[in-house]
């Protein structure tokens, strides 16, 4: 009986839109292409000194084929309504800027997490705030009740995004993130926002 209830709840949530346009950026469901893989890999390489501090997947991104595999994984999760990931593009130039997504999209409990990264050359201009605000509005309109943003305790830029968008610190979770960069288990800050 519980399984039937879960299946019914699953069917009530529609897919998130494949393309979202904001004043300065476009969030687009990534499709496998040599161009996107090349742009993604180039931006990761150019931003790796900053990204390596905070995300482990950078260490596993050694070539454009790795980016193709990421995109394949994103699409499989999208089709199964497990996660919705978007490539962030500059609206005017169509340049690839980074990624944003919902890696823990829990339809049953109406909760998710938003994760993001941005190429270093675009940071500090409010692009991530614009992307998070837009995605959170869509998620809350789908009936979700809670969104969290999780970051390393020393990732102050990510923390500032959460604070500026009205997220509140819920807890500091001890030793929840492994860091190759720091060569240790790290604490994480969990910021949350509830549907108003």
Write the layout of secondary structure elements.
Blueprint: H1 2-12, E1 19-21, E2 25-28, H2 34-51, H3 64-79, E3 85-90, E4 96-101, E5 111-113, E6 115-118, H4 127-141, E7 146-152, H5 156-164, E8 168-179, E9 184-194
Q: What's the number of extended β-strand segments?
A: 9
Question: How many helical elements?
Answer: 5
Q: Note the main sheet.
A: 5 strands, antiparallel
CATH topology grouping of the domain at 14-145: Aminopeptidase
Q: Which residues form runs of ≥5 with pLDDT under 50?
A: 1-12
SSE string: HEEHHEEEEHEHEE
Based on CA atoms alone, the radius of gyration comes out at: 17 Å
Mean of pLDDT = 90
Query: What is the C-level CATH assignment of the domain at 14-145?
Result: Alpha Beta
What proportion of the residues form beta strands (DSSP E)? 25-35%
Distance between the termini: 32 Å
How helical, in percent, are the residues?
Answer: 25-40%
Secondary-structure class: alpha+beta
Widest beta sheet: strand line-up: 1-2-3-4-6
Shape: globular
Second rung of CATH, namely the architecture of the domain at 14-145? 3-Layer(aba) Sandwich
CATH superfamily of the domain at 14-145: Gcn5-related N-acetyltransferase (GNAT)
